[in-house]
Amino acid sequence: MRDPVAPPASFESLLSSVLNAAFAAALHMTRNRTDAEDLVQEAAFQAFKNFHQFEPGTRFKAWFLRILTNCFLSRQRKKKREGQTLDIDDAPELYLFSKSLALDPKVADPATLVVSKLETEHVTEAIASLPEEFRVVAALYFVEDLSYREIADMVDCPVGTVRSRLHRARRLLQKALWDVAEARGLVPSASAGKETP
Amino acid sequence: MTPDRFTCEEAFRRLDDYVDRELSSAEAEQVRAHLETCAICAREFDFEERVLARLKSRLRRIEAPSDLFERVARSLRSR
């Protein structure tokens, strides 16, 4: 019989293989490293407790990310709902594309103009500025190749809702990335060039 | 039989699903057919695909703290 206290070696080895992706997703959801570590710990405990429900042969990473997401959403339900930090109306379609072309209309690869200048911490900062419902799906979407159906299972909502949230998340993220790049001086500021009184 | 081609608007509405490979093969083929004949849309789609690929690449470099696994494993053993 399995020792109920000691985690089986297979659980530890599976956990070890998904830890970086789980921590990255937790970091985007919680927006700080300490909370992300706590969230991973909590998810690991829940996963261990329910390891008998994991079906061998299925993706442990997807199963673990689902537990991690549930832990996060359950924590958030206990907190006061946070205010939205970005307005979707301020983030038109193809925001980065049009901004990049405005910088250099003849550039062969406009995607390099802004994104290549952004470090991981800048992208993390931009994701952190997204409202929670968009941040959670973006966290899962960016750290692992998951289908909309898999993300829908993780956040427990219809596929159509995931599709719509991801669409909005990407629009908001493009605007947020530009704002971060502007604030860090990586691209010319909108106020640059304006005459000072 | 060649499928009907999408207009720019119809193709653009499917941009996210296309880059995420969420379209049916028939719809994906219609989008591809449109992109082959419309340089403007092709450039926009290409931009979005490249941006997403770069963002994913950046974000997948994040590593958990080196001692996190040991802390989690220790905590599980002590419960």
Structural shape of chain B: elongated
What's the helix-strand series of chain A? HHHHHHHHH
Poorly predicted runs of 5 or more residues of chain B: none
Biggest sheet of chain B, in brief? none
Largest interface: A-B, 48 and 32 residues
Largest sheet of chain A: none
CATH class of the largest domain in chain A: Mainly Alpha
How big a fraction of the residues of chain B is strand?
Answer: under 5%
Can you give the mean pLDDT of chain A?
86
| Structure annotation, total helices of chain A | 9
Question: What's the mean pLDDT score of chain B?
Answer: 91
Short recap of the structure:
The complex is a heterodimer of chains A (197) and B (79). Chain A has 9 helices and no strands.
Structural commentary:
The complex is a heterodimer of chains A (197) and B (79). Chain A is mostly helical and 197 residues long. Chain A has two domains: 8-82, Rna Polymerase Sigma Factor, Chain: A, CATH 1.10.1740.10; 95-192, Arc Repressor Mutant, subunit A (Orthogonal Bundle), CATH 1.10.10.10. Chain A has helices at 9-30, 33-49, 60-78, 95-103, 110-115, 120-128, 132-143, 148-155, 159-183. Mean pLDDT of chain A is 86; it is low at 193-197. Chain A is elongated. Helix content of chain B is 71%, strand content 0%. Chain B contains five helices and no strands. Chain B is mainly α. In chain B, helix 3 packs across helix 4. The mean pLDDT of chain B is 91. Chain B has helices at 8-13, 15-19, 25-37, 39-59, 68-78. The A-B interface holds A 5-7, 12, 15-16, 19-24, 27-28, 33, 37, 40-41, 44-45, 48, 93-94, 96-97, 100, 109-112, 115-116, 118-120, 123-124, 127, 142-143, 147-148, 163, 166-167, 170, 173-174 and B 12, 16-17, 20, 22, 44, 46-48, 50-52, 54-56, 58-65, 68-69, 71-73, 75-77, 79.
